[in-house]
Amino acid sequence: MTAHDTLLQAENNDNFSSFGFDPGIMQGLEAIGFEKATPIQQQIIPYIMQGQDVIGCAQTGTGKTAAYLLPILHRIITNPVKGINTIVISPTRELALQIAQQLEGFSYFLNISSLAVYGGTDGMEWEQQKRALTQGVDIVVATPGKLISFLNMDIVPVDQLRHLVLDEADRMLDMGFFDDIMRIISYLPAERNTFLFSATMPSRIRELSKRILNQPKEVNISLSKPASGILQVAYNTYDKQKTPLLISLIADRDLPSILIFASTKIKVKAIYRELAAAGLNVADIHSDHEQSAREQTLLKFRNRQLQILVATDVLSRGIDIENISLVVNYDVPHDAEDYVHRIGRTARAERTGIAITFINEEDQYRFSRIEKLIDTNILKQMPPADLGEGPVYDPSAERPQQRRKPGPKPGSKRTKKS
């Protein structure tokens, strides 16, 4: 059966049984409650099963992790190698752990070993990772910097590597990992399959794909469109109104899980302090926290021991937290695509959710770009009367951050202050 035939078969049947997976994989899928393949899984799995390189462009929550892990597991079973078979590279420790957790579930009934490799660990964990890599596990899920540190030690058996996965590739490039990625690839055999996944497809991703992929098949799924189950609302606010408005929206409401995004660590910390002072069940998460503390906070949030989590964009992609009731953009994201990733934390798996964005006078043009990207006019409201009037929404007006500061006319000499 050709890849085209397999693809047509999968499109006509969204049951996982249509892919011909090993029985152990099917047991794992049944145990964790996976019943139907998502559109990206239906399209990508046949290509990987047939040994073709793939570019997958899909927003968060579409099921791309399973789209590459499941066929890779099947190929490992049918064609095992001595040493590391697969390396999955992710931009953050949180995403690496998320992938490793899904991998553990999918491979529960299989004799396949895996290891998550990331920074922020103590000496004992480092030694355990070193020992496991030296012996050779089947699948390694790693952040770029930590993987390079082990590759430099010449202890990682990658000469028989069959698969390389770059997950959230656009985010990795945004974080400055291009050189690290190319350095990692320099250690790997040229004869391999490479799978690149990205939520957006800017020119830098195109350039990267041309350098590291071999005649890839490309799959695009619902690029930059929020889930239909998300109720989107925006408030026109001045900065001083944001926190009082936030408290008025979430206090004494039946919202068991609330995720709040802010643009900087300083803001995250300030929001956390004010919400905690208001008696709300809240925690914050950002890069200043130790890795163990971040993992514990995420665990409490997943288990509903924690109602409100305030975060920077480190959580906007790749973290699978089910049934989030409300996502709040305390600040308008700088990139229009990031809006989709942020609010994509709610209304997962065809559920419903609410996304609220606060728009100050400087962010109005930026928010209009978001509306243009998703082709939606989002409902806009003013704060409650007791908080005072907010700014009038007029994205066509001159943007405050671009107004020219007073200064000497062109050609004139600047004078020193006395």
What is the topological layout?
Layout: H1 3-12, H2 23-32, H3 39-49, E1 54-58, H4 64-78, E2 86-89, H5 93-106, E3 114-117, H6 123-135, E4 139-142, H7 144-151, E5 163-166, H8 169-174, H9 178-187, E6 193-198, H10 203-212, E7 217-221, E8 230-236, H11 239-250, E9 258-261, H12 265-277, E10 282-285, H13 291-302, E11 308-311, E12 326-329, H14 336-343, E13 353-359, H15 364-374, E14 379-381
Parallel strand pairs: 1-6, 1-7, 2-4, 2-5, 3-4, 5-6, 8-13, 8-14, 9-11, 9-12, 10-11, 12-13
Helix pairs in contact: 1-3, 3-4, 4-5, 7-9, 14-15
Describe this structure in words.
By secondary structure, the chain is of the alpha/beta class. It has two domains: 3-221, 3-Layer(aba) Sandwich (Rossmann fold); 230-396, P-loop containing nucleotide triphosphate hydrolases (Rossmann fold), CATH 3.40.50.300. It contains 15 helices and 14 strands. The chain has helices at 3-12, 23-32, 39-49, 64-78, 93-106, 123-135, 144-151, 169-174, 178-187, 203-212, 239-250, 265-277, 291-302, 336-343, 364-374, and strands at 54-58, 86-89, 114-117, 139-142, 163-166, 193-198, 217-221, 230-236, 258-261, 282-285, 308-311, 326-329, 353-359, 379-381. It has a seven-stranded parallel beta sheet with strand order 3-4-2-5-6-1-7, sandwiched between helices. The chain has a seven-stranded parallel beta sheet with strand order 10-11-9-12-13-8-14, sandwiched between helices. Helix 13 links the parallel strand 10 (282-285) and strand 11. Helix 3 (39-49) runs parallel beside helix 4 (64-78) and helix 14 (336-343) packs across helix 15. The longest helix has 15 residues, at 64-78. The chain is globular, with a radius of gyration of 23 Å.
